[in-house]
Specification:
Layout (H helix, E strand, L loop, with lengths): L17 E5 L26 H8 L9 E8 L5 E11 H4 L12 E10 L6 H22 L4 E7 L3 H6 L15 E4 L3 E7 L11 E8 L4
Parallel strand pairs: 4-5
Antiparallel strand pairs: 1-2, 2-3, 3-4, 5-8, 6-7, 7-8
């Protein structure tokens, strides 16, 4: 958990309690048309809460096995982040994410991972990403098969994804070739989209995430 320090340098434990809850179990109370204030105005589309709820109901054939998880403050129930995933096979995902491989038959596609503009620090991002890793381990055990991660990230998220490896190396700026980042926990394969379509904005990387821990 993130520990927040008050102005008098005392640890405020009452503000550190967070929970993650599926959107299907959250009472939106008239917030359906609202959405996360992520602060990135150049994103062409970001689902509002009703969109996420509809996708998570599994009634749309395009969003089978989809779930949005809300990162909330425990005391106020305020939504401060969202993690949306879809369990999907290679054949259904191959035209969307260029980094995946047919050697892996099933992926937990990371559809969205985002924080409210007031909570965009690395600690909260790690909190959400670790939950994503937990979901992958859970599905591996449930289905008893290999499941890995895949996503499309806007380019400005590259340093953040790189920082998950906990070292001081700066992330590469290349857009001309694929590159790999490896650690004992996971391996990321970055595919800059400029190699295939330089016209798409905002700039983005396609990413294959291989998780080495099964427990």
């Amino acid at each position: 958990m993130v520990i927040l320090i008050s102005k008098d340098n005392k640890i405020n434990f009452s503000q550190e309690a967070l929970r993650i809850i599926p959107i299907t179990q959250y009472d939106l109370k008239g917030q359906e048309s609202k959405g996360l204030n992520h602060g990135f105005n150049d994103l062409p589309f970001f689902p509002n809460w009703q969109d996420f709820l509809n996708r998570s109901s599994n009634t749309d054939i395009k969003y089978q096995n989809y779930m949005a998880y809300l990162l909330c403050k425990l005391n106020s129930n305020e939504i401060i982040g969202v993690l949306a995933v879809q369990l999907i096979d290679y054949e259904s995902l191959q035209s969307k994410v260029l980094a995946i491989t047919p050697k892996i038959k099933k992926y937990l596609y990371l559809s969205w991972i985002a924080l409210d503009i007031n909570y965009q620090n690395f600690n909260y991002f790690v909190f959400l990403f670790e939950y994503y890793h937990t979901l992958i381990r859970r599905f591996r055990n449930q289905f008893n098969e290999r499941i890995e991660g895949a996503t499309i990230t806007i380019r400005r998220m590259r340093p953040l994804m790189w920082s998950l490896f906990n070292n001081e190396e700066e992330s590469p700026t290349t857009i001309e070739k694929n590159f790999i980042k490896d650690s004992p926990r996971f391996k990321f394969i970055f595919v800059p989209l400029e190699q295939y379509d330089p016209t798409i904005k905002p700039s983005q990387d396609h990413l294959l995430m291989l998780f080495k821990t099964s427990r």
